[in-house]
Amino acid sequence: MSSIKDRKERRSWWMQFLISVVGTAIGVGLTFAGSKMVENNKKEELQRMMAIMVIHDIDESINSLKTLKENMETEYNATVYVREHLNQLDSVPNDTLSMALSFIVEDGEEFRFDNSKEKIFHSSPDTWQNLGCMKFIDNVQSCYYYRQTFQDMFNKASTWQKPISVKVYEELNNGDSNLSLEEVLDQYYAKMRKLLKENLEDEHVKYFIDCTPRKLGSIAGLLKYWTQVNDENKFLMSITDEEIEEYVNNINTNGIAVTVKSLTGTWNSSPMDESNQFEFRKDHTYSYVSIVTSPANINFSQGKLKKIYKETGTWELKGDSLITNPDSVDFEVDASKMIVQPEKQEMLDSWVQIYKEESLTHYQNWIKEGDARRSWSVRLDASRDKLELKNYRSVYYKRSK
Question: Within 10 Å of residue 198's Cβ, how many Cβ atoms?
């Protein structure tokens, strides 16, 4: 009996031992499997984030190129119109003349794409491994190559370089200081017409203008290529428009959501030579004051001009957007820091008054025509004392204590 009992005990011990071994093995296996699953999920997340970032970057390049093309077309059409009316330039509107001059005169600035995302793409050691799809990687590399090629061509190729030196603008601003303000303005536009008439008949300038349709065609072709390739990129990586939108929202919405209570109060922003102040009230009215001091260089006076813009209206919050609806505006000009040539103070005062009246009329028409309503993306930082207002750019305000 004891031997049977001993055998049963030994079998029981071995069974427990086997169960323990198997259980440990299963536990280790599950641990490795779980770790592998986490690793794969993290890899997939990195893959999608990199793909979304790059796709959005190419979309942004497409938008930049579209804006460049639209501006070029507008100035080109104005230039062609001016060239066709060289003998009747007195009847051509001044803004059309200015666009034509801008089209052929260099401005000293280079056109640049934002390549920060491209640097991230190329500097990541895991890019090739994480993205996996070689066709997608090839598409992205191709887009970045043509982007750099176009940028270099636009800024350096002879056929793309504006033919007239920026010094032309200096000639326009050099005038007889003994003239009245009306005579100064007449002289300025007369010089502009003379410059256009002379330069638009120059063979080098004619060639630059006549090459424009071909250059616009090149831009249109590049836009078409980028758009098709990026549509393919989204398909290859299974990236939806909703994911792109979510990515854009995430990069633009760092911080804390704004409420009516947290926004109410006075906010100040003071970048260089500029100060801005918003006061948002509980009754959903607001006031805004902007003071900008900038250099002014006219032929009878030089120095700094202070411009004071005041606006009142109503405001509302919709989600993470702040809507401002101006209903009145005021504009002042302070020329006390201007250095005036002898016996020219009266002329400066007259010039300031004209500038003020024309600016104020422009702002009032802006409100009357309904173009003054603005929508801002708005967020607070963790302290709730710093505010980001963003439409075409971000401006940061600090709460007044």
Answer: 11
In residues, how long is the chain?
401
Distance, CA of 167 to CA of 10 (rounded, Å): 103
**DSSP letter at 86?**
G
Are 378 and 321 in contact, with CB atoms under 8 Å apart? Answer: yes
Are 81 and 92 a contacting pair, CB within 8 Å? yes
Pick from 278, 260, 294, 282: which is nearest to 395 by CA? 278
DSSP string of 360-383?
A: HHHHHHHHHTT---EEEEEEE-TT
Task: Give whichever of 19-23, 311-315, 351-355, 386-390 has the largest mean pLDDT.
Answer: 311-315
Residue 34 has pLDDT above 50, yes or no: no
Contacts of 139 (CB under 8 A, 6+ apart): 229, 230, 232, 233, 236
Nearest alpha carbon to residue 135 among 67, 51, 42: 51
- At 354, list the tokens: 């004209």
**315, two tokens:** 């405001």
Work out the widest C-alpha separation in the chain, in whole angstroms: 134
C-alpha dihedral over 239, 241, 246, 249, to 10 degrees?
130
Please count the CA atoms within 13 angstroms of the CA of 80 that sit on its side-chain side: 11
What type of residue sits at position 56? H
Please state, in angstroms and rounded to a whole number, the distance separating the CA atoms of residues 311 and 265: 16
The domains of the chain are located at: 44-252, 260-399
Torsion, Cα 123 126 128 132, to 10 degrees, reads -150
Give the CA distances from residue 273 to residues 276, 295, 373, in Å, rounded to whole numbers and listed in that order: 11, 10, 26
pLDDT per position as a tens digit, 139-169: 999 999 999 999 999 999 989 999 988 888 7
Q: Is 99 helix (H, G, I), strand (E, B) or coil?
A: helix
Q: 312 - beta bridge partners?
A: 287, 328
pLDDT tens readout for residues 206-238: 999 999 999 999 999 999 999 999 999 999 988
Helix H or strand E encompassing 27 = helix 2-84
AA letter at 172: L
